[in-house]
Amino acid sequence: MPRPVKHPEQYVPALDGIRTIAVALVVLYHLAVPGFGGGLLGVAVFFTLSGYLITTNLVNSKLRHDTFRLKTFWFRRFRRLLPAVITTLITVMFLTIAFRPEDTAKTGWQALSALFYVNNWHTIAAGESYFDKFAGLGPLDHMWSLSIEEQFYIIWPIILVVLFAVLRGRRRIVAATITLTVASFGLMWGLASAGADHTRIYEGTDTRAGGLLLGAALAIALAFRRHEGATATLNRGLSGLLGLIGLAGILALATQTSQRGLFLYQGGLILATIASVLVIMAGLNRESLFSRVLGATPMRWLGERSYGIYLWHMPIIAFLPRQWLPGTAENTAVAWATSALVFVGSTLLAAISWVILEDPIRRYGIVEPLRERLQARRARRADNEDAKEYVPHYMGAFPATSTITMLALIVIGAPLLISGTDNRGGGNGGAGVVMELPKDAAQKSASGSKAAGNTKASADARMRCTTVVHVGDSTSIGLFDPNQVPEGADTGFQTYLDRGAEEVTDSVFGARATNQGYLDYPSAVQSVTELLSMGQDEDTCWVIATGVNDAANYAALPDYGYEQNPEEIKANIRTMLDLLKGQMVMWNTVGTYQPSDAYYNNDNMKLFNKLLTEVAKEYPNVAIWDWASEVSEHSDWFIPGDGTHYLPEGNAERAKRFASALANAFPEGGKGHKPAKKIVNS
Predict the structure, then answer these.
(1) Average confidence (pLDDT) over 37-42
(2) Using CB atoms within 10 A as the burial measure, which of 450, 527, 533, 638 is most buried?
(3) How many CB atoms lie within 10 A of CB 128?
(4) String of b and e for 198-214 (b: at least 16 CB within 10 Å)?
């Protein structure tokens, strides 16, 4: 991503065009634009290009001057990278304190790790998942890749010194570099396993070094050829052919690769790196049509600023209110328009940062302009007639950083101020998702809400349940969080109370399935087992609200190398219902609306609903609430661009309808644990 020093034989305009393509793929992926689930491969293109450019710089220095000039190299790298990073981190911290104060500590640690370029290992050590989007995107989620690059810039030159000292010959050095490449890709391949979260592999420096190293191997081979006077570029015809093959390969992988499947780590990233090498080799021939197209003025201009675009695009996406992103998944035209909006905002900030901060510091540094300014001031104070008028090269690092920070706060914060909410829910209609309620809220009893419930008259049907235990996944979190329903609307606690319950307990955790947990989250079966061990009265009603993740996990099995067998879903449902034999149980069907994650497609939900209904017939104490049919008429309740979780209005409706359906299943005055109807509605 950093701009190279433009030695005539090293720099060609097409390389900036490659950067433009890479950053565009990353933005499309982070915006969940349909068809770009593999757009995260854009980072692989960045890595390969960075490995090529940095190694070309180093090897050219060695071959010309018999020294790598490491001190100068490292100093220039830090001077090029740090100013923009620091500005971005300052802006993100201001925005977090202003709009998400509860995330200040977490974001602060992320910013600190990003500042010292260890963000990838911080994420891995913290046990966070890069691929878990239930909690929404974080403004610094992209800093891991910059950390890997900077670690490469520090470690690789030292390795290169050793390789040149020990191996000397071009072929041996290239062979050693390719060996390291194979070792890195081999480690990635070996660590990948079906069903696992692959953040460690995707963000590990050791497992991602392969892309950087293959670019480095190409750079070493070509630098030696140029130094020896041999041709270092392909002919025009071959350049065009290989360039088109490489570019087509990158685009095909970006649109067809699943972020969750094993193929990404056991072939996908390797192929993306090889395709990137082909595009780089094709771009080096400046006379070819392929190179001239990639090197066109707009592509060069964007590529030169791609580092800043990459830095700014994630904070813009992360803080943009969801209601400003309508229909991202359901309307492709809107999805592209949203991408253009984010790209324009990122480019604006990157362009201004380049003009007043990054390029001046790259050219003149920080210390030297300050020294010249002080010398000019001293000369004027001494009334030195020969003192020259000081003409500043730029406004100065601190004023430039402050200017860009203020502009970024306006660009990113204005939509939040206008909408009156942040993008994760709460307030006046936010649409985000919180992974888990705070423990004090998630475990609270309804006794505190009971009095409020008694003051509210209700003519609706009432239930015979004295206690309601609601066991759910992330789709139920909004029912019980006052910040995720419209102002004045009742949460699930109150709606259950209004229908006759005396006590309500919720057990709600994100991203879990019926018989499968996620990270530290227990499975629903584990939660029910624990709650049963505490003792429940005989008039307890159990609401089981899982199934969304069961369906998605089942749909993902082929991508992880497993065969699908519907009996496994049935077995998980039976495990839950066997625990609750003799209890009053209501389990709702599930539905989605054009979700951003294809595994959550509604057809997969329909399969789960079919199997759930079949198994429920075996248990006379179980009622099925057909929520899927009811929500099918209300696609506007879903979060746009998410399609699985709900807007505040949807959460409020679910809260009311859960209570109503339970009252219809086990109405007041009924006897025993058999529901009034097997299939109920609200």
Answers:
(1) 79
(2) 638
(3) 18
(4) bbbbbbbbebbbbbbbb
Phi-psi region of 600 (alpha: psi -120 to 50; beta: other; left: phi over 0): alpha
Residue for token pair 């080799």: 281
Amino acid at residue number 585: V
- Where helices occur in 420-547 by DSSP H, the ranges are 439-442, 447-454, 477-480, 492-498, 524-533
Question: Following DSSP, what letter does each residue of 559-589 receive, concatenated?
Answer: GGT----HHHHHHHHHHHHHHTTTSEEEEE-
73, two tokens:
């190299």
Q: Beta partners for 521?
A: 518
What CA–CA distance (Å, rounded) separates 479 from 274? 48
- Note the pTM of the prediction, 2 decimals: 0.71
CA 536 to chain CA mean position, Å: 41
Residue 680 carries which DSSP code? Answer: E
Distance CA 149, CA 208 (A): 10
Q: What tokens were used for 624?
A: 């099925």
- Predicted local confidence at residue 7, as pLDDT: 44
Burial of 197 per CB tally in 10 Å (0-12, 13-18, 19+): middle
Report the first-to-last Cα separation within the chain, whole angstroms.
Answer: 55
Residue 33 has pLDDT above 50, yes or no: yes
pLDDT at 327: 43
Cβ distance 526 to 536 under 8 Å? no
Among 616, 552, 611, residue whose Cα is nearest residue 587 = 616
Question: Exposure pattern of 439-450 as b/e (b: 16+ CB <10 Å)?
Answer: eebbebebeebb
Percent of the residues in the chain that have a pLDDT greater than 70, as a whole number: 85
CA distance 28 to 38: 10
Residue pLDDT, tens place only, 472-522: 999 999 999 888 899 889 999 999 999 999 999 999 988 889 998 877 789
Of 535, 614, 548, nearest in space to 577 by CA: 614
Q: How many Cβ atoms are within 10 Å of 383's Cβ, its own excluded?
A: 7
